[in-house]
Structures are given as C-alpha cells and as structure tokens.
Write a structure and sequence with these properties.
mainly alpha; 2 domains; single chain; disordered N terminus; two-stranded antiparallel ribbon; about 350 residues; 12 helices; two-stranded antiparallel sheet
Length: about 350
C-alpha cells in the first residue's frame, strides 16, 4: 500500500539527503511551538502573561502553530515516528509544568502530571495515525480530508490535558477552587447581561453602597414618574425631599436584606465581586467533602464542553492556515505531490 513519505524514492540520494534536513526542520519547529504553547498554558493557569500578551492569546497562537507543523511533519515523514510524537508531547507537558510550578519537584503533582501526559501522548499519537491512514486511503490528496479527524483527536488530547491538570491542582487544594481572580474570570462575561437588569453603570468592581444607591434611585424615580400627575399639586422641593428620604430608607433596608442573603454584615465599602467570592467560598467551604468533589467534577465537565466548542473554531483556523503553509511548501519547491501509480498521489520533500 502506498504511504505518505517525504520522499517518493529512497534510491535518489539527493532526495534522501534533503529529506533528512527538511524533516528535521519540521520536527524542530514542532518542538519549539509545543514548548511555547505548553509554557503559555502554564502562565494561563497562574493568571500570568507571556511575551507581553495575555496568556490565553499566546496559548492559542502557539497551539495553532504547534498543530500546523505537527500535521506537516506527520504527513511528510516516513512512518509514524512515535519517538518524535513522544518528544513533542513531553516538551509540551514539561514546559507547562515548569511554567506553572517552577522547578519544584512535588511527587504527587509530578505523578499526576505524568498520567495526564500519557493521555495526551495517546490522543496525539492516535490523531497522527488517523491522518496517515486517511492519506493512504485517498487517491487524490485533499488537505481537509486528511487532517480533519486527526486534528479533532489532537484537540481532544489537549482538552483532556487542560481539564485534568486543572482537576489535579484543585483536588490537591480543594479550597483553591474559589479565588478572587477565578470569580472575576467567571463574572466578567456576565457584565452585559447584568447591565440589562441593573443599569448601564453596573460593574462587578463597584462598591456595594454605589450599587444599592443606583438601584434604589432608579426604582424610586420610576415610582415618582408613574405618580407624576398626582404629585403635581406638591412643591418640587417637597417631592425631592420625599425622594431622598425614600432612597435612604430603601437603601438601608436593601443592604440589610443583602447581608442576610450572603450571610455576613455588609459595610457598603466592599466590591460586588468580593462579596460574590466570599459568599460562594463560605458555602463551598461548609460543604461536605463528597459535595466538593462533585462540584469539581461538574466544573471540569463544563470546562471540557466549553473547550470542545472552542476546539471546533481552533480546528477550522488551524486547517485554513495549515493549508496555506502546505500550499506554500508545494509552490516554493520545498515539497511536492508525486504520483506513485496512475491514480495514487503522494507527498514528497526533495
């Protein structure tokens, strides 16, 4: 059965020599971007930055590049090159570990990370095998047809790596599930929705007193506006005085009501995100250990679902950019498509 190789003929010594350094370039680039994407992912876990940009942006950029050169190496290589996949995945995992934990060796964390890496290795290897098998089955090589299924498996491996590493960190320190930064990360996307209910000035960083006053003032204005005709017989100064008194009264009542809900006294100088964090953290800390484990599993499952949706977008971007790089390799003469029989196409580096 014809296979996808960098060279169409091993008898050509010139082609054989070119194969060596060209496939080495693809492997080195894959290793570099694997390490960079793993390091950026580690920074994302500790809410840091990488190369002057947000860690999640850096991670997505380098992950796409990692996938592109991994695909090219897989398709042009002679054989599946398990050892190469081994090096690239371990480079990704080691860079992540160092970025997240530094050079500290924590036995339990290292053991967990080793198991997670093995899952990543398996998924990436299966993805490479699927791409090569699909390439061997096609008479006319089509980039999307070759890469689609294998890339899905690759991204499943990355998704599992992220979710399991997150679970490992949280299970080791269960109370670390909630932090101010974590709550901020979750709450910020809801800001536009909250503004529909609490006004355009709503922000999770605003103080409790400011939030209560804005809410009560808006409600009081609506009440007085609805009674405008009946109140027209009273002087404006009297109406304003009544508004002010009603706002003060309702603000105090609402603060007491909110204090009862969250379970601690509010002074009014706390920010809303801090109140949300303290409320959730108190509820979580008081929960049974089995409930905590269930919450962690639910959050991990939701995280995996979200990442699978995101992976679909990344898959499309990777295949589109990868196709451009693939075509440039063919046009520039770095690689070529050969015909090993009357109908079967193959890829070569020469």
């Amino acid at each position: 059965m014809p296979v996808l190789e960098v060279l169409s003929s091993s008898s050509n010594s010139h082609s054989s020599s070119n194969y060596g350094w060209k496939i080495a370039i693809l492997m080195i680039l894959t290793l570099i971007f694997a390490g960079l994407s793993g390091y950026a992912l580690g920074k994302l876990f500790v809410f840091g930055k990488f190369l002057g940009m947000a860690a999640w942006i850096a991670f997505l950029i380098f992950l796409v590049l990692f996938q592109i050169f991994f695909i090219l190496e897989t398709l042009f290589a002679r054989g599946l090159r398990f050892w190469s996949i081994f090096l690239e995945t371990i480079g990704f995992a080691l860079a992540f570990y160092v970025s997240r934990n530094g050079f500290k060796i924590v036995p339990m964390v290292l053991f967990w990370s080793l198991g997670v890496w093995l899952i990543l290795l398996l998924c990436v290897w299966v993805g490479a095998w699927l791409m090569r098998r699909r390439k061997d089955d096609l008479l006319r090589l089509r980039w999307n047809e070759i890469t689609k299924r294998g890339l899905v498996m690759f991204l499943i491996g990355v998704n599992l790596f992220i979710c399991l590493e997150w679970m490992g960190g949280v299970i080791g320190q269960m109370d670390s599930l909630f932090s101010v930064k974590t709550i901020d990360f979750v709450l910020k996307p809801s800001t536009p929705i909250m503004r529909n209910y609490f006004g355009e000035n709503f922000d999770w960083n605003m103080m409790v007193d400011e939030f209560i006053r804005n809410l009560v003032t808006a409600q009081t204005e609506k009440i007085f506006e609805a009674q405008k005709d009946k109140l027209s017989i009273f002087p404006t100064s009297y109406i304003e005085q009544q508004k002010k008194a009603l706002i003060e009264q309702n603000s105090k009542a609402l603060k007491e009501q909110m204090s009862g809900i969250v379970g601690f006294n509010l002074t009014g100088t706390e920010s809303l995100n801090l109140v949300a964090y303290q409320f959730l953290f108190n509820k979580y800390r008081a929960a049974d250990i089995k409930v905590k484990q269930l919450i962690i599993l639910i959050v991990a499952a939701l995280m995996f679902i979200f990442l699978r949706v995101l992976a679909g977008i990344i898959n499309l971007i990777t295949r589109w950019i990868g196709w451009l790089v693939y075509e440039l390799m063919i046009v520039s003469g770095f690689a070529a498509i050969s015909t090993s029989s009357r109908t079967k196409e193959d890829l070569i580096l020469f």
